[in-house]
Amino acid sequence: MITTLNLSKKYKNNEVLNIESLEIPKGQSFGLVGNNGAGKTTYFSLLLDLIQPTTGHIINNSIQVNEGEDWKPFTSAFIDESFLIGYLTPEEYFYFIGELRGQNKADIDTLVAQFEDFFHGEILGQKKYLRDLSKGNQKKVGIVAALIGNPEVIILDEPFANLDPTTQIRLKGIIKDLAEKQGVTILISSHDLMHVTDVCDRIVVLEKGRIVKDLVTSEATLKELEAHFAG
Amino acid sequence: MVKHFISLEWKSFFRSASFGKSLAIKIFMGFFASYLALIFASSGFLLMLYLERKQPETDPFLFFNGLIFFWFLGDLLIRFFFQKLPVMTVKPFLTLPVNRGQIVNYVLKKSMVSFVNFLPLLTIIPFGILLIVKGYTSASVVISWWVMLILLILINNFLNFIIESLSAERELSFLPIILLTSILYGLNYFDVIDLASLMSKAVTGISKNPYYLITPIAILGVLYGFNFNILIKKLYLDSGLRGKVKEVNAANLEWTKSFGDIAPFLQLDLKMIWRNKRTKSSVWILLMGLFYGLFFYPQPTYQDLPWFFMLIGVFSTGIFLISFGQFIPAWDSGYYKLLMSQNIKYEQYLKSKFTLMAFSVVVLFILGIPYVYFGWKVLIAHFVAAIYNIGVNTHVILYGGSFNRKKINLDQKAAFNYQGTGAVQWLIGIPLLLFPMGLFALLYFITNFEIACAILSLFGVIGIVFHQKLMKSITDKYTKSKYKMIDAFDQEN
What we know:
Structural class of chain B: mainly alpha
Low-confidence stretches of chain A: none
Oligomer: heterodimer
Strand content of chain A: 25-35%
Radius of gyration of chain A: 17 Å
CATH topology of chain A: Rossmann fold
Helix content of chain A: 25-40%
Number of strands of chain B: 0
Order of helices and strands of chain A: EEEHEEEHHHHEHEHEEH
Structural class of chain A: alpha/beta
Helix content of chain B: 55-70%
Mean pLDDT of chain B: 82
Largest sheet of chain A: 6 strands, mixed
Number of domains of chain B: 2
Distance between the termini of chain B: 28 Å
Number of helices of chain B: 23
CATH class of chain A: Alpha Beta
CATH superfamily of chain A: P-loop containing nucleotide triphosphate hydrolases
Number of helices of chain A: 8
Radius of gyration of chain B: 27 Å
Low-confidence stretches of chain B: none
Distance between the termini of chain A: 33 Å
Number of domains of chain A: 1
Strand content of chain B: under 5%
């Protein structure tokens, strides 16, 4: 589904990312872990064509992302709050994203209704603008908005951070369900080793922009990761 | 402690991200400040000169005091719109071992040394010296007069903050201040209470008997105390330091559907304009633009300058186009990454902006039809200007937008807010305003009014005819600057 080849990103002489080759098959839930500055967000930004690669390229479902735009209809993402529009209410935001992704209001209402317990009654019908919601609630809106329009690839940067424990558990359920039952390719990054081993089939460890570990998740994975980061 | 506060203030000024970047704005602000200073400084001399030439029998001292009431009202009004108490910056101190009282005192005292408070000194000091030199009043009277006026400036300073904090909670927050000043002005104007001469007598009296200075000092003390109490209550995260959360009415805007595929963006733009401080408070600029012609047309001098009609026409029908268009796409800078990773066509996004601007030109032209009172030529010039705005200026400003590299924070007020302003905003004025006016004037002098109108309309019509082609090349320009824009909008400035 997603092929990365000879990808690197340099700022002046400082190389922040260098991935020789990485293949993510369809339907995989893919976890990216690493310390601050390891290159996780850089990789996701490259994947969304928000920054230009210094060398190499990423191919998303046979479309090279920095050349065509046809990957956009089946790819969605929530990277940070700059993906939210502060002066809209959550409903308006969902409808707006829905319209961009060719969904009508009824489609959105049905989709959003499935996440009622995820929202915990704090999002819908609150008559508040997104900018006035708490960080955690903003994140919930962003994550759900990334699920609109039946995307085949979903990219979530640090989805577990800022969420309360109940929501974290529900989010894990949602992610597993998407990957296993609906065959969606999910890419998530996280600092939380436990969550990421819980939901991901495969975990890649980045260090200073390079892949240092590529693991298929098993019983031993969490231990191995903990040992690696305890360093 | 105060030393620390001052050093922090200094650093925040010189280390701010925008410092040094926007030299043009600094120069402009510098000019503006010196211009104001010059006006204030010269008005003292000019007033004295005027009185001596034209009304030698009036006492300049009494005459000046008679004006103080009006200055007081005007000053209060201007302060309300431009002077803000910088409370938000104290947030980091709340958890540090600093006395709350100290913080409040610092914020209040800092407000006393603002530029606005120094301006009147430039008038009253030379005027006072002239009074002594020319022998109208004694030096001791002038000195206590100075003290009195400085106290009055400070009273206004603190009075403004009280009015602000009382009215800030409400929608239409500027209504109370306008009511207050117009009632005071009205009472005086219709001779219900002669406030102007009362104030004049008070100032004159106090200047002659400095012991009475105790009254303004007491008033100042009370106002300061009042401010102190308001502020100290606000220094909690859940009251004054928290942004207000208002219940919102979700708007429907279904009617935009008739615009087809640009509807979602059109809705977004309308919501953006209506729901954000920066855009909302610039709506009043529309009124200013609409009434711009009234500054010129009633004067016979301008009636005989038909070539000048074009500038007013372009400006008054294009005020929204200019004020909104100059910050495309920076208005969306807060969520530009979202737009760029979504399944959207740049063309639709830009077309929505175009539609909004073109629509505004039509509406503003219609609202401006009463200008026909000043002659048919005015109306024709405005009509031509409207066509030119739709055909040429909309495209020019959209093209200029592709050079925008500055983020805009929508939550801030518009007045004197130069965030997002760069060289582009200054340069774009040339093709936008000066070019049509220059061309029109040139054609007017070479040929006549009718031909000049025809040629400018032709430009507009050509622009409308080639709209699709122009949009295509503008879209290409935006696509090319995509990464630079994303990167730039990511930076706080």
